[in-house]
Amino acid sequence: MKMGRGAGRALPLAMALLLALHLHATPASAAPKSYLVIFDGPPPSPTGLAAALGGTVDLIYSFGSIKGLGIQIDSLLVPVLKLLSGVVAVIEDKLYAVQTTRSWEFLGLQNSNGEAHDVWKNVGKFGEGVIIANVDTGVSPISASFRDDGTLPKPANWIGGCQPGYSGCNNKLIGARVFNEGIKAMSEQNGEQVNQTEVNSPWDYEGHGTHTLSTAGGGFVPNVGALGHGTGTAKGGSPRAHVASYKACFKEGCSGLDILRAILTAVEDGVHVLSLSVGSPASDYATDTIAIGTAYAVTQLVVVVAAGGNDGPAAGSISNVAPWMLTVGASTMDRTFPADVVIGTKTITGQSLSGSTDQPCAMISGEKANAAGQSAANSSLCVPGSLDPAKVRGKIVVCTRGSNGRVAKGEVVKDAGGVGMVLCNAAASGDDVSADPHIIPAAHCSYSQCIDIFNYLQSDPSPMGAIKTRDAELGVKPSPVMAAFSSRGPNTITPQILKPDIIAPGVNVIAAYSQEVSPTGLASDSRRVAYMVESGTSMSCPHVAGIAGLLRAKYPKWNPNMVYSAIMTTANRGGNDGVGIRDETGSAATPFSYGSGHVNPVRALDPGLVYDTTTHDYLNFICSLRPTDTQGLLPVSLPLPLDILWTLLIRVFHGTDSNPFQCSKGANRPEDLNYPSISVPCLPSSGSFTVKRRVRNVGGGAASYTVSITQPAGVTVIVDPSTVSFDGKNPDEEKHFKVTFQVYDPVKAANYVFGGIEWSDGKHHVWSPIVATTKCG
């Protein structure tokens, strides 16, 4: 039996017991905390563990499938717990956060008349028979998006269901459960009270979970919109799929233990596609319960799609970076919700879902409307209490984005007596604007537009303006454009894996909403709506999950990695104006923003070739992270020793197609994971560096593919062989190739440079982006 901290480093049990008793007798006591404990065999009983520790152990969850326990103990006992025989890892629980009528037409699955593309209806079968689930804030069963129209059969091989006492489940919404022990323990530890109604029910009291689940798999619902805007037929990417909700997120956040229990339960229940619009800043895989849970899910052939986070545009802000999940960034679509700001003879068009002002009104900048004792910096942001009612009453106030929420600023203006708001981006947000359901007439305008507005306010001694909102405008160019909030690469945990993998619509997405909460989430907002606009990578993630459902329906025998590859290698890299994808400032975006590109579901359903990443590949990848193999290339200090990371994840992946498995000495590099993209940090300035890949023909019949190369600046890329041929007789036939890098201009290659390779047989185009640099870490 291996010791928890590696052979030779664990104390004998008797010594550990003495230390535990000594700590237990110490007067000082730390507050209890929650932990995930992984063992190298069947977990002990809580009673047995308490006896070994000499302290109280409260069981939160048992995670049998990964040999783990979720427990609450005094934090002073943690050093002893780590030294007990059989303990592999001790991971403190933490909070995670949650992160459409037009989008499917924009993605090419239906024409301008709303008619479904043959690929969507007949090839992807609208996702029929597939089970898509999310881990989120719950679901509203009264939404029309989840009604049973009587034509859906009962799902096959489904053992899940609904929480006792929860009504609303049917052959469409087949599961609704809540996992709350972790959040209740954390709230108790922090001396906080939770809303018992919300925390104990699978019902959605936030709106987020209903929105994301309906985006992935909601049924067809005609004549719906958001507050009268964007009316059309709402539907998910797999509208004939079955859907299930695993509630692990609440107003307080999402406990990592609750998320882990939800993921493992979804796998046990028989889910095919798991959508995770939840995350936290990237952390070592061995301390990230999402990474641990999804590693197990992938071994059980569950497709995992995860939001990349809303911490952009900062470099290295991407989260959910493990290679066994498909990580999604957010971009715009070709629809806006115009709101005109009329100032003098000029009209500036922003976005909003609010109403209009009845007539022209006096205008004032928040900066000049500060209340007594409040700085101009505070009042420019329209934070609570910063505005002087005497200066604001009856006026339109111009507020700058930042600090508090966008709709909350409108509430501040209204409370001070203002009648409208212009919300202006700061320079960092560029042209990234959102259509929000403001409680007063409002328009959200870009940074460049707001320069004109501020110039007008400064030049006119009595500035006047009006806000006039209009219905949705379609065909907007350029689209897609990166959302400023979408988190960016590089991957700070393993830079050899490019993240995000893909982007999808995540701005101003209309989908189902819970009527238990107002559209703004403000307590003063008494409105209730059945469908609402939301923005975030939380919204882009379920778009891709819905598309994964179509792939699962067409190719039920494919493993998750083949689905990931099909989605990534067929993505678009250009906008509807014939130019490459732009970022929020209008500059050219890079793969650190969009990964492989913008998702193209029609092409994804016929990818031609796929990169089939097996469990054996993942095991070798994990082996490559061991200290003897990293050569100091990891860019961050890991909170757990690498041998523990390896031990933990090897045990999660072990046994699917690699039993027994041993790491090959010196033969594993993270760059060689058979991943659909290629990221090579730490390139040598002289000599060459070679990575390995292999592809499988899924296009049917004999085929010959030839490679073309987009060379990164300062680097020469050679692919050998340059042609791969398949005889079509063996459906599992794979072809191996090597990609060699040689730096010819170290100055250019010192920064990240970008290129790619594309395999084509004349019909299919299989793209893999390349990211390279001579920098290490």
TrEMBL record:
Enumerate the SUPFAM superfamilies for this protein: Subtilisin-like (SSF52743)
The keyword Hydrolase is assigned to this record: yes
Extract the Gene3D superfamilies matched here.
2.60.40.2310, 3.50.30.30, Peptidase S8/S53 domain
UniProt keywords, alphabetically: Hydrolase, Protease, Serine protease, Signal
Provide the Peptidase S8/S53 domain boundaries.
Answer: 127-597
Q: Does the keyword Repeat apply?
A: no
Q: Which GO terms describe its molecular function?
A: serine-type endopeptidase activity
From the UniProt record, give one GO term of the biological process aspect.
proteolysis
Q: Which residues form the Subtilisin-like protease fibronectin type-III domain?
A: 672-771
Give the signal peptide, or none.
1-30
Question: What positions does UniProt annotate as the active site of this protein?
Answer: D136 (charge relay system), H208 (charge relay system), S538 (charge relay system)
Q: According to the lineage, what is the superkingdom?
A: Eukaryota
Ranges for domain PA come to 379-449
Q: Into which family does the record put it?
A: Belongs to the peptidase S8 family.
Task: Quote the protein name from its UniProt record.
Answer: Subtilisin-like protease
